[in-house]
Amino acid sequence: VRARVMEVIEAPSVDYQDIGGLEKEIQEVVETVELPLTQPELFASVGIEPPRGVLLYGPPGTGKTLLAKAVAHQANATFIRMSGSELVHKFIGEGAQLVRDLFQMARDKAPSIIFIDELDAVGSRRTHDGTTGSAEVNRTMMQLLSELDGFSERGNVRIMAATNRIDMLDPAILRPGRFDRIIEVPLPDEKGREQIFKIHTRKMTTEEDVDVQKIIEEMEGASGADVKAIVTEAGMFAIRRRSKAVNMEDFEKAIDKVLHKETPVEVPTS
Ligand code: ATP
Predict the structure, then answer these.
(1) Run means of pLDDT, 10 residues per run, the chain, 270 residues
(2) Where does the AAA+ ATPase domain lie (predicted)?
(3) How many A from CA of 228 to the centre of ligand 1?
(4) Residue of 55, 67, 166, 228 to test ligand 1 pocket, by largest number of atoms within 8 Å of CB
(5) 12 CB under 6 A from ligand 1?
(6) How remote is the CA of residue 156 from the centroid of ligand 1, in Å?
(7) pTM
(8) Which residue, among 135, 124, 161, has the nearest Cα to 29 in the 3D structure?
């Protein structure tokens, strides 16, 4: 049961080149997570401690998980992902133990990167409403804080977390020595959307009528995950026509389907 809640990838295949936009954010992650793993002596000789925990925050589907996987790839580290919401909603009563297991596994498989998705599910401001649910969440969070505190800054285990709701986080979790490096991962701008579009259409056959600039403009407000979904949908429309190449109309229909559909685009992360 416990193994199922963790996703473990020995060395993820995601590369920094698979990430569109986010140059500044990649740079920050390189300095705060990758370098402490690959060149710890840099920190030792300058005499500073790298941050223990790095928190990525921003809207859903902007590439936070991608970024964490790419660092693990670059540092040749094991990537261990655990979802905060699964931790507290699916494995009720086991949260604290799972956190312990998570850190133990990370030490066993070091060098490694722990990635905790949906950190807000574990680390929200405590409600003190006395329900068993929140007592359980509190226990899980106390365990997480204690693992973070007992964690060697110079070790070869690094920890990253992500949230869409930084405003909800308990200040205790953001205290110095914990998740004290905060990196915003925003929605892509036009340039970013173009790069993400190029990444996801790398292997796609397109007709000459495809106007990339227009597509990029029409995708205003789209996340990286939306851009990817649009490319996939456009491909599906082409397949439906039994065509080998995707045309402009396929893209128009895909944009409409992904961005303008009535029901919210959000998919529950089981
Ligand atoms: P969530 O907060 O919902 O967990 P996230 O920020 O972790 O989202 P990812 O899981 O990294 O988002 O993104 C989902 C998918 O969308 C990725 O696997 C990738 O295919 C695509 N994607 C998102 N952002 C980017 C990006 N910046 N460049 C390229 N692809 C992206």
Answers:
(1) 70 92 96 92 91 91 96 94 84 84 92 93 66 72 87 81 91 86 96 98 97 97 98 98 97 96 59
(2) 50-189
(3) 9
(4) 228
(5) no
(6) 26
(7) 0.89
(8) 161
Most informative mutation of 16, 66, 85 for ligand 1 (most atoms within 8 A of CB)? 66
Query: Distance (Å, rounded) from C-alpha 146 to C-alpha 77?
Result: 23
Q: Which atom of ligand 1 is nearest to the CA of 162?
A: 2
Sign of dihedral through CA atoms 199, 70, 169, 270?
positive
Helix, strand, coil: what percent of the chain each, to 5? 50, 15, 35
Q: How far is the CA of 226 from the centre of ligand 1 (A)?
A: 9
Give the number of other CB atoms < 10 A from CB of residue 270. Answer: 8
Checking ipTM against 0.85, whether it exceeds it is yes
Cβ–ligand 1 distance for 36 under 6 Å, the answer no
- pLDDT in the model for residue 264: 54
Q: pLDDT tens digit string along 163-191?
A: 999 988 888 888 888 888 999 999 999 99
**Given this model, what pLDDT does residue 128 score?**
47
